[in-house]
Design brief:
Blueprint lengths: L10 H17 L10 E6 L5 E5 L12 H14 L7 E3 L2 H4 L13 E3 H11 L2 H12 L2 H15 L21 H14 L11 E4 L2 E4 L3 H5 L3 E9 L3 E10 L2 E10 L2 H17 L14 H4 L7 E2 L7 E4 L10 E5 L6 H14 L7 E6 L5 E8 L1 H13 L4 E4 L1 H5 L24
Helix pairs in contact: 2-5, 4-5, 5-6
GO molecular function: hydrolase activity
Keywords: Cell shape, Cell wall biogenesis/degradation, Hydrolase, Peptidoglycan synthesis, Signal
InterPro entries: Beta-lactam/transpept-like, Peptidase_S11, Peptidase_S11_N
């Protein structure tokens, strides 16, 4: 739920605040059975908020990250620091990216225009890294520049650590921040925005079709970007124009590709059907810096697409339903289990529960510690991140969406001894 926190110093101010709260509440359309973690709909011309649910909650961006990667490329094109027909080199790092790709080979080149189209249409991670290294020297330096640009646009709770959106525990966005970015792309690069409407392109004889099904199936849709990782869930930033009115909508943390498209369509339909509020609330009004809204840590989503659960020996169960994904992603179940057990031994003071491994559709395995209390899960991830270890908090709702009771038969084993005091 959208929350607004401000200080008041008089009865009149308090009355104004109560009225403002009522107006904000009137904006929040009911969304029955919504599974997403955050959503926002705004009128693109006025910036008026038409719907909001947890718009400032930190979430993982997945490939919506590439909106900023492309923004930086558009900026470089306008400044003359990049040319559309420029041939960009493909490094070892770029060619080795996992997930969606253009299958670029180390030592080859790709035109800047094709790299931009690849990042948008195919959501290609290798193309995003090629752009990052061309514009920033290294991907990490480019990510710092992305974060600085985000701050300059008013994206106050966004942090970038890579150009692709591959999961990193410190790479976070909010629905409000992504809306600001979408509006900035529309406003600052009207001639280039058409790239986000393109449904296919050809690179070196291969045709790549858009992964954004919403673009083809919603009347008036003309962009902009999808995203998916197991930790992020299914994200979508969308824009549509009907009868000359443009709306921009964001859904973060849905549980399937179809769910995110259905949620966006429902929210946009509701917004188009409703009149504008008599006293508008804008993106500036819900800026968490101005409202001093609490800044909660990002929590992960384990999508059913990732969720064939296999039991491995672990720790005894605790009573809670929260979980933490630890250690990262591995090619085999054995490696995932070994890495998970090592972290559980070294951090037994904060990691109770039992350990499972999930297997993704791409045959990647992730260790997850289940059966924690919320406070314990949050503390565990804080401790692991301080130790430079990967950790993502997973809520009970998101874990239940992925795990069926029959698949989670966990063998109990004696607890590991508590480590000494020395103990994305």
């Amino acid at each position: 739920m959208l929350r607004v926190c401000v200080r008041v110093s008089s009865a009149g101010a308090l009355a104004a605040l109560i009225l403002f709260g009522a107006l904000v509440s009137s904006l929040l359309f009911s969304s029955p059975a919504a599974a997403y973690r955050a959503s926002l709909v705004v009128d693109a011309d006025s910036g008026v908020v038409l719907h909001a649910e947890q718009p400032n909650l930190r979430s993982f961006p997945a490939s919506t990250t590439k909106m900023m990667t492309v923004y930086m490329a558009f900026d470089a094109l306008r400044a003359g620091r990049l040319k559309l027909d420029e041939e960009l080199p493909v490094s070892v790092r770029a060619a080795s990216q996992t997930g969606q790709s253009l299958r670029l080979r180390q030592g080859s080149t790709i035109r800047a225009r094709d790299a931009i189209l690849g990042a948008i249409i195919e959501s290609a991670n290798d193309a995003a890294v090629v752009l990052a290294e061309r514009l920033g020297g290294t991907e990490s330096d480019f990510a710092e520049a992305m974060t600085a640009k985000a701050r300059s646009l008013g994206m106050n709770r966004t942090e970038f650590r890579n150009a692709s959106g591959l999961n990193h525990p410190e790479q976070v966005v909010t629905a409000r921040d992504l809306t600001i970015l979408a509006l900035a792309l529309l406003r600052n690069f009207p001639d280039q925005y058409g790239y986000f409407s393109t449904r296919s392109f050809v690179h070196r004889g291969s045709t790549f079709n858009s992964v954004n099904g919403f673009l083809a199936n919603y009347r008036g849709a003309d962009g902009i970007k999808t995203g998916f990782t197991c930790a992020a869930g299914y994200n979508l930033v969308a824009s549509a124009v009907r009868d000359g009115r443009r709306l921009v909508a964001v859904v973060l943390g849905e549980l399937s590709r179809g769910d995110r498209a259905d949620s966006i369509a429902r929210l946009m339909d509701q917004a188009y059907a409703k009149p504008d509020p008599k006293i508008p609330v804008t993106l500036r009004d819900i800026d968490p810096v101005r409202t001093r809204e609490p800044d909660e840590p990002a929590a992960g989503v384990i999508s059913p697409a990732c969720a064939s659960i296999v039991s491995v020996p672990g720790m005894p169960r605790a009573q809670g339903g929260w979980s933490v994904e630890i250690a990262g992603t591995f090619n085999t179940k054995a490696k995932a289990a070994d890495a998970g057990r090592k972290l559980m031994r070294n951090h037994a003071a904060v990691l109770g529960g039992a350990m499972l491994t999930t297997i993704e559709r791409r045959k990647k395995h992730r260790p997850i510690v289940v059966g924690l209390e919320e406070e314990q899960a949050t503390a565990a991830c804080k401790r692991l991140r301080q130790a430079k270890a990967y950790c993502v908090v997973v809520s009970p709702k998101n874990l239940r969406a992925a795990v069926t009771p029959a698949s989670a038969k966990v063998r109990k084993s004696p607890p590991a001894k508590s480590p000494s005091a020395k103990s994305k």
